[in-house]
Amino acid sequence: AWVDARGPDAEALLGVRATHAVTLAKTGDTERSIALLEELYQQQRRRRGEGHPALAGIDLDLAKVYRAARYPLVARRHLRRAMDSLSQSGMQARLEMVDGLEQAAALELDLAHAVAAESLAQELIEAQTRRLGDGHPQLVDAYSTLALARSLRGDPRGATDALILAEAAHESSPEKSPVMLGLIQALRCDALMQLGDATGGIELCRTAVSAWSEAAPQHSTTALLRMMYAVALAQGGQKPAALAEMDAARSVFKGPEVPTVAHAQGVMLEAELWFSLGEFGPAMDRFDEARVILRADPESAPAEWVRIHLRMATIAGLHGDRERALTYARLG
Prior knowledge:
It is built from 16 helices and no strands. The chain is mainly α. The longest helix has 19 residues, at 30-48. It is globular, with a radius of gyration of 22 Å.
């Protein structure tokens, strides 16, 4: 049992408890982590009073754990309370505020709220630039989030602009990571494919696949990048190479350890391959298969649901089935 945190050592004990709660979350014990953090919040509220900025850090930890546990709306409530507390206390420049903006942008992206995610990502970039200066390496994640939000909103050109800034920020780091650079280049590849630039997409995807294949050849992310490369090859008219690349990547997704979202994304990329080759029947079948996979965990990937239904609407429209196209578009 925990010793009650009172007296001169109260703050230190509360800090130890908070650290322990976060450690529990990292090991997958989210239930105990949440219980401890909620207890800490109430103890601090009694000591400090409602709305005290010291409570914001606990709220941010709670948001992180609730998001990991797939309770996005609860996570959002804790984020808003933390950020309101910091703002009202005149502490907008604190690192906690940056953490809150970072979490909030990622959360809105999880929920497929592209406009809100983009706005928060821009606010995060402004806050980090004020603290660290233009193009600092710590801005890589913020620029990447901005790019993902713009891509989800249907703005691949804006996404490309953000990713160029992300790559420049990464290049300014003294500790460059080929794996991180590979992810940025993969996102640029996706944006270029949306813009119809298959040649540029192929080159970027090839570089991303090379980096990840060397670092983690059997990782699900490596397989997804190879599938994206296959789609780029198909868009570039290289059908045999595209099919061979897809076959090489597909086997990774047969293991039970592959997360639901990654599995669904793999099937969606197979669908995109067939779509790029003009094979709309197999493409529609694969998108439908991805929907079945996601139904096992429907709260896990709202953004993927949006992408699936918008693509299915496009295919139905190309087949002249206006009613089904409208139905899928509304679901998206």
